[in-house]
Write a structure and sequence with these properties.
- It is a single chain.
- By secondary structure, the protein is of the alpha/beta class.
- About 30% of the residues lie in helices and about 15% in strands.
- The chain has eight helices and nine strands.
- The protein has helices at about 20-25, 60-65, 85-105, 140-160, 180-185, 185-195, 225-230, 240-245, and strands at about 10-15, 35-40, 50-55, 70-75, 110-115, 160-170, 170, 185, 205-210.
- It has a seven-stranded parallel sheet, with helices on both faces. A two-stranded parallel ribbon has the order 7-8.
- Helix 5 (about 180-185) links the parallel strand 7 and strand 8 (about 185).
- The chain is globular, with a radius of gyration of 17 Å.
- The termini are far apart.
- It binds D-galactaro-1,5-lactone.
- D-galactaro-1,5-lactone binds next to loops.
- D-galactaro-1,5-lactone binds near residues 80, 116, 117, 168 and 183.
Length: about 260
């Protein structure tokens, strides 16, 4: 867990959110600075390498200040769920552009982008996805994640920014419903995953599913995961008897329903 990291000064956007709060402690070892940013105040842990820069993703000048001088960015910020287009367009589209463009102009070498399994939610449970299939978003939220991946790909190809898009499954202390026997990402594996994304080997553009070593995972380990050295350890199977079989028609579960998120 304290392996040498190539990227010593790292910015974490959305640091006050669900995943950000859990990652902080596990990311800190080996870093000179873990710079936190969010639109809400977040207290850096005293006596550690954490600092805090207050910034709204829509405020390009504030994002420039947040990004200045870091080697890598882990971009978790934005809305993490289905919402109206009006509510998603700011944080997930404009905000993601602001972040990538600030990184480009500041000479940041790597951006780790928190995408989602909902970029491919309209695949069947039997489809074993490796990240190279066409996207099939299951929601407007999923569409915004596809946009973030596309910006990442553009910036990798055009500007040489190293980009890893993580299609995160269900990040929770433990799986709570049958679908999550397939999609669970444990907190420990999330730390392993994000730390893997800071290892030295140069990457161009990679897509990796963020999932634990679940017996029933839909997303097998891939060349891209091996490139960054991600080796998950946890398995949702221990909860299988309690949770029962999942009967999803699509991988995206509830997000695929016609009325999910208030469509009329
Ligand atoms: C996500 O992308 C969401 O942010 C999270 O709230 C869960 O819905 C998760 O996917 C999931 O698929 O379980």
């Amino acid at each position: 867990m304290t392996a040498t990291l190539e990227f010593r000064r790292v910015l974490l956007t959305g640091a006050g959110g669900n995943i950000g709060s859990v990652l902080r402690e596990g990311l800190r070892p080996g870093l000179e600075e873990l710079r936190l940013t969010d639109r809400v105040p977040v207290d850096p842990t005293e006596g550690t390498s954490e600092t805090f820069v207050h910034a709204d993703l829509l405020d390009a000048a504030a994002i420039d200040r947040a990004v200045a001088g870091v080697d890598a960015v882990i971009h978790l910020g934005g809305r993490p769920d289905e919402a109206s287009f009006d509510d998603l367009v700011g944080p997930n589209l404009q905000g993601t552009f602001n972040l990538f463009d600030a990184a480009r102009r500041a000479g940041v070498r790597r951006v780790v982008y928190a995408s989602s399994n909902h970029a491919t939610g309209f695949y069947r449970p039997g489809d074993r996805l490796i990240g190279e299939e066409p996207t099939r978003p299951d929601s407007l939220y999923g569409v915004t994640k596809v946009f973030g991946e596309a910006i990442g790909r553009l910036y990798a190809d055009k500007f040489g920014l190293q980009v890893i898009a993580l299609r995160i499954g269900s990040f929770k202390p433990r799986p709570k419903e049958p679908r999550e026997l397939h999609t669970w990402l444990s907190p420990g594996d999330a730390v392993r995953l994000f730390r893997s994304c800071l290892t030295p080997d140069p990457v161009g553009y990679l897509v990796v599913y963020g999932v634990s070593a679940n017996t029933r995972r839909w997303w097998p380990s891939t060349e891209a995961a091996r490139t960054i050295g991600y080796e998950p350890r946890d398995d949702a199977e221990q909860y299988a008897e309690e949770l029962g079989e999942s009967s999803e028609r699509w991988q995206g579960g509830g997000f695929t329903a016609r009325d999910y998120g208030g469509w009329t």
